[in-house]
Structures are given as C-alpha cells and as structure tokens.
Amino acid sequence: MIQITATDVDALSLGCAILGSGGGGDVEAAALLLTRTLSEGAVRLADPDEIDSVAPCALVGAVGSPTVMLERIPGHLEFTRAVRSLERYRDQEMQAVAPLEIGGVNGLLGVNAAAHLGLPLLDADAMGRALPHLDQLVTVGSAALTPLALAQPSGGVMLLDDLPDDAVEHAVRAVLPAMGTWAAVCLQPTTAAVIAATAVRGSVSRALLIGRALIAHSSGEYDEARLRRECGLDILWQGVVAEVHRRDRDSALGTITLIDQESTARVDFAHEYVAALVEGEVAAGSPDIVVLLDERSRHPIAVDRVRVGQRLRIATLPAPPELIAAAPRLGVTRIVEGHR
Questions:
Q1: Are residues 146 and 180 in contact, defined by beta-carbon separation less than 8 angstroms?
Q2: pTM for the whole thing?
Q3: CA 48, CA 191: separation in Å to the nearest integer?
Q4: Three-class DSSP category at 72
Q5: What does the angle CA 255 – CA 257 – CA 262 come to, to the nearest 5 degrees?
Q6: Among 22, 107, 286, 290, which one is most buried in terms of CB atoms within 10 A?
Q7: Is the pLDDT of residue 336 over 60?
Q8: Rg of the Cα trace of the chain?
Q9: How far apart are CA 44 and CA 61, in angstroms?
Q10: What is the side-by-side order of every strand in the sheet holding 281-285?
C-alpha cells in the first residue's frame, strides 16, 4: 500500500508547483497545512482500479482567487463540509476522493481533504496540470459536473444542481464574490470506474516523482540529462528577465521577455504560462507544461512573481496523453504539435 506522509510534502508541493505551469495558486501555505495534517497520520494513495468499480467518488479542490486564498488561508473544515454536504444531498457516502487538479495548490488540498475525511486519495486528477476553468476538466462528458457543493471558509455551503456542464463555470464564478471570492468545492460525484476510465491517471505519483527529481537536481545529485530521464523535465534556455508586460489590470495576460548574450526568448502567459519562444520560434507550448525555474534554487517561479533582473531557466514537461486527447473539445489550444 502506497502512503503519502509528512516526509513527502516537500517533493509533492514542488511537483504540484511545476505542474501548475506558473499558475494554480501558491503552494507554500497549503504545504504547511498538509505537513501539520500528515504529522497525525498518512493518506493512502490508491490506483482507481484498486477501488470497487461502483464506489462513489468525487473531485475535491478550491475555486476562486488564489491571491485572496493567501489572505484567508484554507483549512480543512470547508473541504470536509463540501464533501459531507454533497453526501447528504445524494444520500450516499464517498469511498474515495481525487484532486480537482494536480497543478498548484489543489494538488495539496486534495491530499489534505482525503486525510481529514479518512478516505483514500485516488492517484488521478481531472486536468493533469493547472488550467483556469472548470469546463476544462478532462472528465467533462463522462459524468455530470453537478450536483456540486461550494463551502466558504466562514461556514456557509451552497449546492448547485441540474446545470448543464457548459453552464457550471459561469454559475460558480457568479456566486464566488458572495462567498468571499474563493470556496472549497466537491463536484462530479461519480464512480471509481468512471474516474479510472476518463481522468488523468497517476498524476499524484507524477507530482511526487517530479518533486523528488528536482530536489536531487537542486542538490547537484542529478544533472540536466538525468533530470530529463527521471521525470521528463527538459531545460530549454536560460537568461535574464528584461521586461514583464501585463496586459490587463489583474495581470492574468501578458508576456515576459528574457535575454542572454546571444539570443532573446519570450514567454506568454494567461493565468499560466502558455508558450515559450526562442528567437521567435516556438520551443514549447500548451497543453504541454511551460515552467520558469529560478537559476539558483531551481524552484519554479509563478506568473505573478516574475520580476525584471531575475535569472531564470525555461523548462517544459509533456502534457499527459489524456489532456492532449481532450484538448480540442476543452478549448485548450495545441500550440506545439509533436513537441519533444
């Protein structure tokens, strides 16, 4: 039996940050929360095939503003309330949960929720990285997204039901301001068999693998070639940030220009990093995962923390095949065909 313990949190948080592709929320506070939770007991990590195929399962995570989440830090009660409220509504107890998305803070919050619920955590998620919208889950179409429960940190719970999948994102975003701009969510109640057939398999294990490999690279144990072999993370280019141009007020869209002695690179972002270009040629892009790493620490730098003068490396990871297959219907642009 595979268990996630407190000793795994550093690697898991680093892997989730990498899979966040510059977005998905800051993992630091969630890592502290998870360390405290797992100091009291481990979480069982289960392959979806290990669970009874008809066992009720659901996705768990957070939706809303990552910035406000740093001010109103998540705990565990709101996630427990979301799951228990959906159980009462359906008169059906969950047998396992899966992270809504593995990229960013939700990868850690899913583990934390499973620990407090006393349930196995499925080694799967619904994105394989961080993406900004609920209608970009690879599981859309396999089971209805509703009913879903939104639980705010202050105690209220809202249930939404009988909404078409393409209306869920708009409805959730519409009510979030009244809930304090972020909320815990439990959605797409289904079975282990459906998650096994449609979700991104092995995503939690992948985050752990990436985090452990990057820690080894940071310590000098792995060179770039071994880093690529161990977890698929490929360093493409390195240089200094010369300009950060944010196109709108909330800084969700923009470009980053980097230079070295011989060439120029550009990274485009829209919540997450979307594409990396070197000398005008696309080197990596969505749905593959583009990452900016600090030159010294080798840790990932989020979109909102990029500053002029930083020495960064541009790196990439291949998107999971489930996301590549679903990308056209999810509106995720395939920027680089046959990358890697």
A1: no
A2: 0.94
A3: 10
A4: coil
A5: 155
A6: 107
A7: no
A8: 19
A9: 18
A10: 281-285, 272-278, 264-270, 253-259, 234-246, 311-317, 289-294
